Please model this.
Amino acid sequence: MEIKLHYFQTHMIRVKEIMILLILVLFCLLSITTSAQKKSVISSARGFRASIIKINITPDKPKQLLGYGPRVSTGVYDSIYHRIVVLDDGTTQFFLVSSDVCLISPSEYDYMASILQKKLGINPGNFWWTVTHTHSAPEVGAPGLLGVFLGDRYEHPVDTAYASFIQQSLFNGIVEAQKNLTPARMGVGWGFSQANINRRAIDIDGKGSIGLNPDGPVDRRIGLIRLEKQDGSPLALIANYPIHGTVMGGDFVEISGDAPGVVSEYVEQKAGAPLVFINGAAGNLAPIYSVYPDAKSGHLSQFKVLLGDKILDANKNIHSTLDSIKLVTGAITIETPLRPNLAWPSDMKNYTGVTKDNVTIVKLPVRFLKINNDVAIWSTPLELFCEIANTIRELSPFPYTFYYGYTNGWLGYLPSADQWKYGGYEVDVVSPFTPVMSNQLIETVAGYLQGEMRSTQTINHPNKKRNANSKLNDD
Model:
C-alpha cells in the first residue's frame, strides 16, 4: 500500500511539473507571438517613408543668367533653392529634385545620375531632376541644344564653378534626405488656378508669335501630392502646375525664383512645410502678368493669391491619406526624325542616332512613376505644349495623371500638331522635331499608360524604345 501511495504521489508531482512546464512554454509562445505582432504593426507603419530637404543655391557673386539674352546678375531679389524629396515604399526609393533654375542640358542630368549611381547605388530611373524654369537664375553647365539654337547667348565660357556647386549641393542634399526618412502618409488631389494664359498669339496673316492668346488652349489644373508624418503633421507638398517663369523680363537682372519661387515660399509659410513646385506642360503658357522690368510692375506678389492660395485650397480638399504606398517606375525611349539641317551638340551624343535608312533621329527619354493604382506621373525633358499633356491625361486610365516638364534636361519645344503651320519662336527657332512628333508622343505615352503602366510585372522591365512607327522593341 505504501509503495502504491508513493508511486501515486510521485506520479502527481511529475504531472504538476509537466503542467507547469507546458504553461511556461505557452506563455513564452504567447509572448513571442505578441512581440511579433507588435513588430509587424511597427513594420507596417514604417512601410512608407519620406523626407524633404531644402538647400539654398543662391550665388554670392554676379552670374550669367539663363533666359532672354546674355546678361549678368547685379544682385538677389529672392533666394533660389534645391528642393529634394525622397519616397521609400520599403522596396523602392524614388528621388525627386526641383531646382530654381531655368534649364539644364540632358548631359548635366546624365552626369549627376552617374555620380549618384556610382557612389550611392541609386538607379537612374528612380532619380528625376526637374527645374522650375525661372528666367532669373544662373546658367548651370553646358548649354546643350540652346547653344545650337541660340549660340549668340553663349559666347562666354561655361561657369564650371557654379555648376560644381550645384552638383555638390544636390549630392549632399540627397545623402541627407536618405538619412532623414521618416514614416509618412500620402494624399493626392486636384486644384485649379487661372494664373496662366496661352502665349501663342496668332496674327491676321496667320503667323504665330509670343504674346497673349486668351482664346488659346490652357491647362489650369493643379496636381497636388501631400506628404505628412504619421501624426498628421505636414511634411511636404508637391504641386504640379504649368507656367513659364517669366513674370520678370529681360531687363530684370536680379536673381529670383520668379512666380514659382515666390509661390513656393508663400505656401511654405502658410502650410508649415516646404512646397516642391513642379512645372508642367508650359511650352505655350505664360503667367498672366509676363515680361515686366521689375517685380512691382509685374505684380509678382499677386501670384501668392493667384496660385499660392489655390494650392492651399487644394490641400484643404485632400481629406484622406494612406501609409500603404507602392511605387513603380518605368521608362521608354521614343525615336523620331530630327528636324532637317539641324546641328547637334557634342555633349548630347546619347540623344541622337542614325537609322539603317540613314535618317538622323532624336532619342527622347520618357519616364514614368506609378503610385498605387491611382496616380500616374510621366515626365520628359521638353517644353511641351499643354494640349498634348491634356490629351494624354484624358486618355489615361488613372484618375490622377500628372505631367512633369523640364525633367532630366531639355530637348527643346514640342508644339502640338495644329501649331506647326503658324510658325513662330517655338516652332521655327527652338524645336529639334518634325510635325509628326506630337501625335507620336500622344500615341506612345497613352498606349504605355493604358498597357504596361497598369502591370507591375512589366513596368520595371529594362528601358524600352519606340520608333517612329510606335512599335515596342527590347533595347
